Automatic annotation (TrEMBL):
Alphabetized UniProt keyword annotations: Hydrolase, Protease, Thiol protease, Ubl conjugation pathway
Record-stated family: Belongs to the peptidase C12 family.
The name this protein goes by in its record: Ubiquitin carboxyl-terminal hydrolase
Site annotation Transition state stabilizer: residues: 51
InterPro entries: Papain-like_cys_pep_sf (IPR038765), Peptidase_C12_UCH (IPR001578), Peptidase_C12_UCH_sf (IPR036959), Ubiquitinyl_hydrolase_UCH37 (IPR017390), UCH_C (IPR041507)
Amino acid sequence: MDPDALAQLHPVYGVIFLFKYPTDVPYTSADKPLEGSFDHEAAVNLWFANQTIQNACGTQALLSVLMNKHNKDGPEGPEAGYIDVGDALRDFREFTESLPSEFRGEALSNSELIRDVHNSFAKSSPFADETQRTSGDSEDVYHFVAYTPIGGTLYEMDGLQPAPISHGACSQEQFPAKVMDVLQRRINRYDATEIRFNLLAMVRDMRIRAKDFGDAEMLEREEKKRRDWQFENALRRHNFVGFAGEVLKGVVSHKLKNGGEEAYKKWVDDATTKMKQRSEQKKMGGAGEDVEMGG
């Protein structure tokens, strides 16, 4: 939340704010937002899409910034006002820019490219948690919105709202301080104990900066980050149920081969006894035993 820290990442194309969706007060209003003002004209002139599909607010927030950075001669300057999004997204923007905002949202869900990229970051869920459906407790819901300077104005791009929200005049140099003021006021509307927020900055690829500065160490760090991200994403999406089943079968086969059925039965009985002991201690408020991880 430090404007100077954000300014050091220049050029900053925008920020994406994650917060807990409020359920105790109305979130949307057709008349006036809680802060700022609806700019219905901007909903036509800028690339703004209403969110029509669930669980896509993060992707939509990213696109709300990317699709509006195509003006090399805007007040933001050529560095912060222009991003080469490539032919596919450029064609998509040109195809949808004449559509109403609600139809742009539908076009997002119908874009095979955007859908495939979005789903490539979805985690694997081999089991459905039935307790979530029967417990009666409502799950916390979180939402992403984007803030970006466009044409000399600070806009909040939220697909659940009827139009972009203007937060007043804002140059690229003023953006770090002005957006932090807006976000701080927004956070202050929550209880002081609420800390579940996240803020992401959309900046130019840091590898480009490393190359411009001739910083080989920084370049290697950035390359390593991307290798780690790729591995983590593959790990998150992988379904380990089959792997776990094969390991279990291998362990059982090893026990039977080396100790016979008696050793196998004793192994199972010992494990069952320990599990019952831990369960009883848990009910009584005890700490229970430490679980040993053997090789």
